[in-house]
């Protein structure tokens, strides 16, 4: 094994790239779950975002437009989930699983003509001054704009939930929809908005995979990233900061194990490939084993304003 | 005479199959405490929901201080000065007191100012409360203070209180009344909903009585007796249960040092509970909800087992036996939750009869259910306890709360238990049915059974029990004979007022 082939600067830089799709999907799903809705369709919305983003970026030769289209596609798919579960009161778990299946099928249909094509990708956005720092500059401050956007989004979600009145209302709806309704808050509307946000974030996460990380379209390319995003939300105890830790941990181990594989480490490949999933869940379980778990009290429960 | 604050004229609201309010009219004056009386299902809740903007009336008008008042949503009602304290608290466990208060306000001030305002109001009205506490950790009385303070911060003209005392100890009730009187003296009108008649007689200036959605009477509660008020609510006279003199026999149930850990995150552990019940005796156990009532019932019924010696029936250890074995020996129970615990909601009354009565009523033969016999048993219960239902094939869910309660209690009583443990036997049941259930329990004791009646209704416990004890945080107080017990003593047994002080009523 030749560990010297692993360049730490490149390693950290690729960790950030690798963590971004999961971070985007997870932070969106966290907001959804904070409002009391369990949307298990993250994987389906991600892959739909991936294929729509790729298709639009190729056709319009603009990755920016690709991301916008991916967010809209994810939001539209989640709207279907929202209408079914919030207005028609279908079962959230079954509908979410169905959404994943729909997304996987739909994406391979849309994506067939685009297989093997190349896409324009996002250019590096070098943060002035900071990117000139030795080592750190290349590691942390010479990424594409979506990496920074995802981190800003985490901070924004954190501040929104903690400090704003709208955030307080969103949490209240997730904690007790009957109480929130009695106080006159529009539970269903608030949840639909949260679901749309979650869908858009998942779509962006998917597009980041197909436009930046890979960058190519292959069928089923999300490979469980949506599921890991769901798991991260739960094990992060519904806290924005921990979601970021979880996503970076997963991204980090993914990149590291790829590097170890390339370096010819003497560990079975199957175990290395499984390691990101195992380690992320293990670490988050240990974090969340202590203290309050903080699941929103109304999570997954259907709401109907009956008298 | 003071001015009319809110005038209701001809309010009508119908739901499919039932008219919840039928042409209801009355006035609430400024600064008065107005009682709204009625049985369950009389339409009280629908009426206040219309005033609070949660439900739109089909017809009729409301006038607030001479101006038309048609709140489309609670926000509009709050803006007009109507505030409401809910029966089932509209609080969020995971949020702090201040956050909960902010959610109930239209334009909450900055967090720091809000915390100060909460402290100010809570001091003025003698309702101590820490704005930073998480609501999930508060007692029922403290939670109610959060609701009240949330209302008071908006300087309401009309404060609606929906059954506020059902979760309070007598001391806490007294403090609440002081607060309400102080508010009324400052000019706030209070619409007070309750079916506790003595409370209304001591607190309220006027009362409007609803029955089956119609206004049937208005009166000055202090001038009427509790019995007259009850008959206005029910629309008929009914028998008050009679406690017969009965000899006490041997010790039937003997519990010694019963301790069990809490069953879940929000359960209560049982701590060193000891008592004895003799044949022919009824032991009443009071206490504010959530102090170990469900857990005690589970331990006595056999849903949770203990060491063998902890629970004895006629000196025979039964602590390790499960519910079926205990039932076979004659220890029966009726839990509080009707749907899902006492009865399986989607199963028929006959099937529900088999679920608890199979052994004692001999409804099984060779592992098969004898359905003819089972149906006969179910019909017996229906007949003896006047359960209003089309027949024993009806699903338990289809019965009204009161009727199902009569059925599940009757089902146990007719199995001639040696020991019967019931929790909240008349919860949500109308006065006439409640009287019938209490009489059945008294009759059962007169036949020589030992009864443990767990209830949050102190009047009920005084009516049926021979001795009284209170559960407080999983501990059982000293057990005392009911005769000569005062309300103050009961309150102290229940744990007093949880660090409350009486409101400083300014001279």
From TrEMBL, chain A:
Transmembrane segments: 6-25, 37-58, 64-84, 96-114, 140-161, 192-211, 217-238, 245-263, 269-289
InterPro entries: ABC_transp_permease
Membrane topology: Multi-pass membrane protein
Key word Transmembrane present: yes
Keywords assigned: Cell membrane, Membrane, Transmembrane, Transmembrane helix
The keyword Membrane belongs to this UniProt entry's keyword annotation: yes
UniProt-annotated location(s): Cell membrane
Molecular-function GO terms, alphabetical: transmembrane transporter activity
A Pfam family: BPD_transp_2
A GO cellular-component term linked to this record: plasma membrane
Protein's recorded name: Nucleoside ABC transporter membrane protein
Source organism: Primorskyibacter sedentarius
From TrEMBL, chain B:
InterPro entries: AAA+_ATPase (IPR003593), ABC_carbohydrate_import_ATPase (IPR050107), ABC_transporter-like_ATP-bd (IPR003439), ABC_transporter-like_CS (IPR017871), P-loop_NTPase (IPR027417)
Compartments (UniProt record): Cell membrane
Keyword Membrane listed: yes
Pfam family, one: ABC_tran
Gene3D superfamilies the record matches: P-loop containing nucleotide triphosphate hydrolases
Matching SUPFAM superfamilies: P-loop containing nucleoside triphosphate hydrolases
Membrane topology qualifier: Peripheral membrane protein
Gene Ontology molecular function: ATP binding; ATP hydrolysis activity
PROSITE patterns named among the record's database cross-references: ABC_TRANSPORTER_1, ABC_TRANSPORTER_2
Domain ABC transporter, chain residue ranges per copy: 6-237, 255-498
Keyword DNA-binding: no
GO CC term, one of those recorded: plasma membrane
Family annotation (CDD domains): ABC_Carb_Monos_I (cd03216), ABC_Carb_Monos_II (cd03215)
Keywords associated with the record: ATP-binding, Cell membrane, Membrane, Nucleotide-binding, Repeat, Sugar transport, Translocase, Transport
Protein name: Nucleoside ABC transporter ATP-binding protein
Organism: Primorskyibacter sedentarius
